[in-house]
Amino acid sequence: MSNTVIHFGAGALGKGLVIPVLHDSGLSVTVVDADAGLVDFLNKEGQYHMYILDDAKNPVRQIPIKKAFHLIHDQEQLIEALRKTDIVTTSVRRENLPSVAALLAVAWGQKSNNTKLVICCENVENVSSLFRDALLRFAEPQNVENLLQVKIPDTVVDRGCSANPSEPYSVLTESFYEIGVDEKAVPDTGISQIPSLPNLRQCFYRKRFLMNTRADLLSYFAMEYGLHTFGEAVHSQSLQDYLAPYQNNILREALIKEFSMAPSEYENWNSFYLARLQKSDTKSDTRPLNTIARGMWDKLSYKERIFYPVVLCKKHNCNVSAGISLLADIVQIQKKSECLSNTELIEKLKKLWCLDQDGQEIFNQVISLWKERY
Fold this sequence. Notes:
The chain is α/β, with parallel strands linked by helices. It contains 15 helices and 12 strands. It folds into 2 domains: 4-198, Rossmann fold; 201-373, N-(1-d-carboxylethyl)-l-norvaline Dehydrogenase, domain 2 (Orthogonal Bundle), CATH 1.10.1040.10. The longest helix is centred in the middle third of the chain and has 25 residues, at 200-224. The N and C termini lie far apart (62 Å).
């Protein structure tokens, strides 16, 4: 196996999680990015700074980079480099994965690929199917069999990472991180710091519900409370109290019933994620709320982080009234913010939720409560 991994995407998550983990596993990392300034910087300096904000003993690390390619301008050299590597990783966001797939379809299409591995570190459910579909879509017909040999597992990734406004090409991060792949697809990644996990689905949804869902809902309702920053939102006791029924009766039950999480394990992880969110004080975490609570319609879709826990609870015959109540409030806020008529709102929600009988029944309950309440 080649000692060099090619990583696509040197944004906050790439620089703050994926590249350091690859380096700590004893691998050299070549980076691909569309930011010409960043590519020039990495080629000139051969490294970047990673600041670990909660590590007093080791607050800054220098992370080496073997080489950097520009996604567009260096494609000929990049394709040649891809042909020589066995492992590709990504942190480019869902919408940019097809660009990576198109390059791999060219670079890996003409030879057997039984040693090739792609790890998409994207915090996207079923990312393996998403990427494989894109890879085969770009494949020449005679190359499909070769590309079907590429191993593409589902993944879980988690680390708080953000850009550093005072040092543009560095990254700010935290000590905690989690990264792993589905053991069923890849029993051993060959990368010491990226383990294969026996229950990846539970890990994925534990982080999705207890971190992402909570952060989105805190930010979303904080704007309704007249707050402005995430620090204010996460330390608001009135917001925590408002969300508690949904947290305790929907998210908790979904993780226990659907993903076989022990109640004690839920309590430990729930406390841990809340402590992570509240690590900064009210004044120091000045992230604007609208940068976190964005794309709300997407997050309200059937399989996403707010509606899907209610679906899972319903499938397991749990009481979903706390979820219905929260969704009715969100529906009203969305209606007001976009000046939707009742008909427009209802049609939009039907398309999002009425995908099966459970979705239809939840939709009916939400609309009934919304009409009664508003």
